[in-house]
Amino acid sequence: MATLEEELRMDEEEGRREIAFIRSQLSSELKEKFTDDELLFMIDAICTYFYTSGVLESNDEEVDIDLETVADFVCNEAKEEGEGPFDPQDVFFVVQADLDFQEENA
Question: Do the domain assignments include residue 19?
């Protein structure tokens, strides 16, 4: 069983890999637009969306995910938390890349 320190280190490494993957999927313009901290915030907000929306509780084999809805949620979370502001059209591509990362690492 991993210690708390090992768990935190593994989470940090996973976050770095996820950010690198997302950056590899974004246009040059968007790569420069977002800092790593902003991408981490978005990743966390995307997770929050899935935990609070009920999507994870579905028994269906395939679930349709409206990426625009997720992007809007991330932007609203950012506004509430004093982050951003982010353009939902830009965040859409981050959400799409994050879902691709999750599918590849499932």
Answer: no
